[in-house]
Specification:
Catalytic activity: diphosphate + H2O = 2 phosphate + H(+)
Shape: globular
CATH topology of the largest domain: inorganic pyrophosphatase (n-terminal core)
Oligomer: single chain
Pfam family, one: DHH
Distance between the termini: 43 Å
Structural class: alpha/beta
Largest sheet: 6 strands, parallel
CATH superfamily of the largest domain: inorganic pyrophosphatase (n-terminal core)
Strand order of the largest sheet: 3-2-1-4-5-6
Helix content: 25-40%
Protein name: inorganic diphosphatase
Number of strands: 11
Radius of gyration: 19 Å
GO molecular function: inorganic diphosphate phosphatase activity; metal ion binding
Number of helices: 10
CATH architecture of the largest domain: Alpha-Beta Complex
Strand content: 15-25%
Keywords: Hydrolase, Manganese, Metal-binding
Length: about 300
Amino acid sequence: MPHYVVGHKIPDSDSICSAIALSYLKTTLGEETVPARLGELSPETLFILDKFGFEQPELKMSYAGESLYIVDHSERTQGPDDIDEATILGIIDHHKLGDITTSTPLECWIRPVGCTNTIIKMMYDFHNVEIPKNIAGAMMCAILSDTVIFKSPTCTTADIKCVEALAEIAGIDDPETLGMEMFKVKSAVEGTPVRDLVLRDFKDFDMNGNLVGIGQLEVIDLAIFDDIKADLEADIAKLKAEGNRHTVLLLLTDIMKEGSEMLVVSDSADITERAYGKATSEGKVWLDGVLSRKKQVVPPLQEAFA
């Protein structure tokens, strides 16, 4: 019976490309492993898979009795609902350490870098395994996505060096131009249902017993939201009520202006003032320089809930 590699619910490009890259590495090392996913894929991720000739990983929601590797998170709220009934073989991640626990020893690769695929590149190097051209291309794109083409404060020298090395393997002469193509795909929102946009890159967090949902839409021009912003605001209010959440935040991130407008629905009217030192006005607040949910949004919010 093969093992599985799976990322978080509502998977992003890093989660999916990590599953593909790690499953190949483990299988090459003699441990039959297959990639899986916990949800539908975003247009950006579909673009990456199509460009490098990959099928979508298997959609698998239940893992009771299975053995699996977790990538791109270590949070119980973001993993399979029956994770307690599975055997976790390892965690490979670049976020804060979450609340997943195990009853047996496991392999852990957790590094403060901009992307899980950067860590997986280190794993390939450690095991001296050659990366196939198409996997290198997908890994490179995931790093460009997670680091916002090196603009994110989470980006490290290791991420940049990995993109350079992976681009050479994949035969990509100008990775940053490819990165802009990806963000143009990500910026295409016309005709997409509002709920699909809200959940395109959405994660739930347990913050001191409070369920907090944080979504993010990264685009090259916030003007594309002008006609639908009121609909987005209404939908995050519905999402909050449906999920019994304390707070729902939606980051509308402009990668060119390097900042985010945050839409806020919360049981605490002063939540952004306590977390970020800026009060909301009509349920919105502009956060200059904020690009990273992981590094700039979640940590101060957790402190506000402490």
